[in-house]
Inverse folding.
């Protein structure tokens, strides 16, 4: 099975969005370079960021996100972000009214699952030996607290929010990580990768 990676862009003080769910400048690094990150031509990063992020994105088989993110993005209009094959949505509510998987790309389905343990199991089944990415925030913090995260990847952006949505959600217990095994400076971002201590 592929590893489970908690990932997200984060402010220096640990937030993934402000209190109104706005990311502010957290994704500015994705347009601050001159190397195209994908075919869209919209995302352009520095060479060090490209060399780190592109291979990682290519390894992701499934992303796990919360229902809140799914609803905020309107299900990414039926196409999972960054070319991901599957998105497992953790929710305690039924599928959204009017949600029509037949009207969306059948090669990129969404799976609605109740609970993080079930979400990780379903994601690993779908991903095979590829990476299962867990979005930072409440769901990511719950997966970490359940002992199911293998590594934490952070794209640390030079901004202080002061308040907002925390990278690790509402985790209320201590979890030790190993020393970072990757530290890469890009343009307007510092990429960090921490194995989770077992």
């Amino acid at each position: 099975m592929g590893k489970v990676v908690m990932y997200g862009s984060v402010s220096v003080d640990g937030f993934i969005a402000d209190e109104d769910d706005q990311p502010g400048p957290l994704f500015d690094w994705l347009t601050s370079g001159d190397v195209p990150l994908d075919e869209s031509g919209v995302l352009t990063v520095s060479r060090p960021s490209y060399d780190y992020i592109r291979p990682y994105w290519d390894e992701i088989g499934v992303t796990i996100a919360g229902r809140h993110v799914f609803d905020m993005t309107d299900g990414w209009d039926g196409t999972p972000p960054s070319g991901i094959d599957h998105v497992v949505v953790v929710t305690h509510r039924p599928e959204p009214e009017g949600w029509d998987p037949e009207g969306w790309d059948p090669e990129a389905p969404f799976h609605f699952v109740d609970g993080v343990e079930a979400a990780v199991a379903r994601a690993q089944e779908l991903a095979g030996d590829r990476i299962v990415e867990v979005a930072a925030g409440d769901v990511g913090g719950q997966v970490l607290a359940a002992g199911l995260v293998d590594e934490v990847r952070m794209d640390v952006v030079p901004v202080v929010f002061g308040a907002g949505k925390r990278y690790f959600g509402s985790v209320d217990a201590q979890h030790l990580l190993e020393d970072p095994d990757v530290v890469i400076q890009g343009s307007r971002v510092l990429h960090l990768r921490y194995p989770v201590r077992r």
In short: Residues 47-59 form the longest helix (13 residues). The longest strand covers residues 4-11.
